[in-house]
């Protein structure tokens, strides 16, 4: 007699299913790597060493992870409200613009302890304002949020090009970038902070914004699951009719969800401009807004899952660069293929291993209260 399949436990849904999907993606990548004549185990070793083999590698992995956390949380907050925010790239762009404008205006007047919080707030406000327009169009005009947020990505890119070429370019500069921020507008690097504590690590791009990313994870968790506003937002995402019946104002909740989403995406500008470039430059989002969709999907839109998925994508970003350097046959496009396969198995094919896992869990833990069948003669007579 076959064992009936039951739904996966909650912990297996969050942890086991994504791990199986990742394993399937890496097996597929291994087959592709073998076809092009590279030893998959050697490629995997180089990938891991490139991401975690030294303090410098770990620093860059965590630096990439920070950006993926911001954009993954941005997508997740909107998704919990039933909104598919594709505009993280543009919101990160405009958030960085707000951050940079605040610093350019005030870094020569204010000390760092005041300038840094103001710049972070400006990044959140500008990102939220850029997301508020598609939110308003969805809430009051019925425009589809996917279409409008995609369009706003292109608008943000065009706006930044115009501003950097014609308005914000540093005097005498031949490249479209602003002047360098003063010390008041720069986030401390983690290797500098650790050196002050007597811990010596190699210099990297990792900076204090990773602490902001951790705080955002905790804040999103508290907001979504421990506040009435978060409950109303999740109710709207699950069942808008029930949310209306419970007294939720859907228009206001849509605005709240998208503004929070845009503010979180805007923090990418904090990491990139205040922590690394220390000036406004073009193209600093570098695709993080789109990758945040995959991070949120893989992390099941939960802050802990998003942090783990962001760490994986950060390791792929850093380890992939090392892999492309060591093995010329594997170029950056192959690393993109690896990321794409992980997105494929974590998105479109997310339910592929579900029947096998349901069967396995049902077999390992039979239904409670169900008496075992006796197949011997004594059992038949009873």
Characterise the protein shown here.
It is built from 17 helices and no strands. With 382 residues, the chain is mostly helical. α4 (88-106) crosses α13 (288-298).
Which terms summarize this structure?
ABC transporter involved in vitamin B12 uptake, BtuC, disordered C terminus, 17 helices, 71% helix, globular, single chain, mainly alpha, 382 residues
Ends: how far apart?
20 Å
How much of the residues is beta strand, in percent? under 5%
Main pleated-sheet profile: none
Structural class: mainly alpha
The amount of helix comes to: over 70%
- According to DSSP, the number of beta strands is 0
CATH architecture of the domain at 58-315: Orthogonal Bundle
Ranges where pLDDT stays below 50 over 5 or more residues in a row are 368-382
And the CATH topology of the domain at 58-315? ABC transporter involved in vitamin B12 uptake, BtuC
What is the CATH class of the domain at 58-315? Answer: Mainly Alpha
Computed CA radius of gyration, to the nearest angstrom: 24 Å
Tally the helices. 17
Q: Which sequence of SSEs, written as H and E, runs from N to C? A: HHHHHHHHHHHHHHHHH
From the spread of the alpha carbons, the general shape counts as globular
Residue-averaged pLDDT: 88
